[in-house]
Amino acid sequence: MTADKKDIQVLETQDDFTQCPQCGYDGGFHTIFYDLKSDDPVRWILMCPSCKARYDIGLRYPPSD
């Protein structure tokens, strides 16, 4: 199964990210990992379980310098 990456919202780094900006849900996020079989760093995406909005807050593995 492949998810549509164009719907991922890129957010600026904040002190905390505890509430979905789209729907206000504050019960935590699901995680999605992209590019696992690539030579590029893995993208760690957060998804709201309520409205399914997806967010890229810059988490990568391995982290870039």
Structure description:
With 65 residues, this protein is mainly beta. The chain has one domain (8-61). The mean pLDDT is 88. It is built from no helices and five strands. Strands 1, 2, 3, 4 and 5 form a five-stranded mixed β-sheet that branches.
Which secondary-structure class do the elements indicate? mainly beta
Helix content: under 10%
State the helix count.
Answer: 0
Number of strands: 5
Report strand %.
25-35%
| Number of domain modules | 1
User: Compute the gyration radius: what is it?
Assistant: 12 Å
Instruction: Report how far apart the termini are.
Output: 31 Å
N-to-C order of helices and strands: EEEEE
List keywords for this structure.
65 residues, 5-stranded mixed β-sheet, single chain, 0% helix, 5 strands
Short structural summary:
With 65 residues, the protein is mainly beta. 0% of the residues lie in helices and 29% in strands. A hairpin with a 7-residue loop joins strand 2 and strand 3.
Topology:
Elements: E1 8-10, E2 30-34, E3 42-47, E4 54-56, E5 60-61
Parallel strand pairs: 1-4
Antiparallel strand pairs: 2-3, 3-4, 3-5
